[in-house]
């Protein structure tokens, strides 16, 4: 029954993706015929737009716990369905999902480039390895049954190298599960929704204009950051990959990865802005598709 639910859910997501593209056709047409205009908006425009769009408050610990519990539940279903025992989470952050999975009876290892684990993660018995997945981890080949990463792949500076390392440490027949959102060129791809509550600031404004906002409004926006964030920048480090690049690295490894589920999520907020500034978006976005594909969900078996 779990397998049927998983199968039909993936098909439903794929159908919704195709339908969402139909809704974008008028804006796609405006984007396609627009003449590229490299002129981006100014600082006063940014302040006016921020006043018009309310920002979200910083995520409270309870909501973060609920979010991680949701993903841990999905990973647990996949692991049980395929008989996976040894799990590795890449880009674990505070380790809340890893903690839940460890408490559910799995043998869990967590990884990130820095150790910001919640004390409960250590207490649960989760093993932790600090290191950059893009440069390789100190684990032997085929060490894990299931390697997964939640909302981290858009931050890795070399996603292709990260995927290759995941493949190396996954046993033959084991699983790789990736889900990540939002991609850089999508409406909320700057990862700054608690500071700028409108879509596409990374395209509408030059980086220097956004940095001026951070510098001048530092005291005002300080509380909108996660406690571990670098408050001197609008967002965490991002690789700025477009969706076509991610598609390419998955396609290039089709001999090593057998796709079980692959879906792309769309975000259609801000289409009015794309239509209103079609020339600007044409000049600063790699494609129309990159503007609306916000995330990727992939489950694959290592051949």
How would you describe this protein?
This protein has 303 residues and is α/β, with parallel strands linked by helices. The protein has helices at 2-23, 25-33, 43-52, 61-82, 96-103, 119-123, 159-169, 201-204, 207-216, 218-221, 243-252, 271-276, 278-284, 288-292; strands spanning 86-90, 107-112, 127-130, 144-150, 170-180, 257-266, 293-302. The chain has a 7-stranded mixed beta sheet with strand order 3-2-1-4-5-7-6. β1, α5 and β2 (107-112) form a beta-alpha-beta unit.
In a few lines, what is going on in this structure?
This protein is α/β, with parallel strands linked by helices and 303 residues long. The protein contains 14 helices and seven strands.
Low-confidence blocks of residues: none
What is the CATH architecture annotation?
3-Layer(aba) Sandwich
Give the oligomeric state: single chain
Instruction: Choose one word for the global shape.
Output: globular
Q: How are the strands of the largest sheet arranged?
A: 3-2-1-4-5-7-6
CATH class: Alpha Beta
Secondary structural class: alpha/beta
Order of helices and strands: HHHHEHEHEEHEHHHHEHHHE
| N- and C-termini, Cα separation | 25 Å
CATH level 3 topology: Rossmann fold
Q: Could you report the average pLDDT, rounded to the nearest whole number?
A: 92
Number of helices: 14
Evaluate the radius of gyration: 20 Å
- CATH homologous superfamily assignment: Vaccinia Virus protein VP39
- For the record, the count of structural domains works out to 1
Approximately how much beta-strand content do the residues carry?
15-25%
Biggest sheet statistics: 7 strands, mixed
Let me know the number of strands.
7
The helix fraction, in percent, is 40-55%
């Amino acid at each position: 029954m779990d397998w049927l639910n998983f199968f039909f859910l993936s098909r439903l997501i794929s159908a919704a993706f195709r339908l969402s593209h139909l809704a974008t056709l008028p804006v796609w047409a405006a984007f396609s015929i627009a003449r590229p205009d490299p002129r981006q908006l100014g600082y006063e425009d940014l302040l006016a737009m921020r006043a018009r769009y309310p920002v979200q408050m910083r995520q409270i610990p309870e909501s973060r716990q609920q979010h991680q519990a949701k993903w841990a539940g999905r990973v647990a279903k996949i692991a049980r369905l395929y008989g996976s025992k040894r799990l590795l989470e890449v880009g674990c952050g505070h380790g809340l999902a890893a903690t839940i999975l460890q408490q559910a009876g799995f043998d869990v290892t967590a990884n990130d480039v820095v150790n910001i684990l919640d004390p409960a993660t250590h207490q649960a018995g989760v093993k932790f390895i600090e290191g950059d997945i893009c440069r390789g981890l100190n684990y032997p080949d085929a060490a894990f049954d299931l390697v997964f990463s939640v909302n981290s792949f858009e931050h890795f500076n070399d996603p292709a190298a990260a995927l290759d390392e995941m493949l190396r440490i996954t046993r033959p027949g084991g699983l790789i599960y990736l889900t990540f959102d939002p991609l850089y060129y999508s409406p909320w791809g700057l990862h700054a929704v608690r500071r700028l509550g409108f879509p596409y600031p990374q395209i509408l404004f030059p980086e220097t204009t956004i940095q001026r906002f951070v510098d001048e409004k530092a005291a005002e926006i300080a509380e909108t950051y996660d406690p571990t964030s670098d408050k001197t920048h609008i967002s965490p480090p991002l690789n700025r990959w477009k969706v076509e690049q991610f598609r390419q690295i998955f396609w290039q490894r089709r001999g090593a990865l057998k796709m079980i589920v692959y879906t792309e999520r769309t975000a259609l907020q801000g289409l009015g802005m794309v239509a209103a500034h079609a020339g600007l978006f044409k000049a600063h976005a790699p494609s129309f598709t990159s503007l609306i594909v916000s995330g990727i969900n992939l489950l694959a078996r290592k051949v």
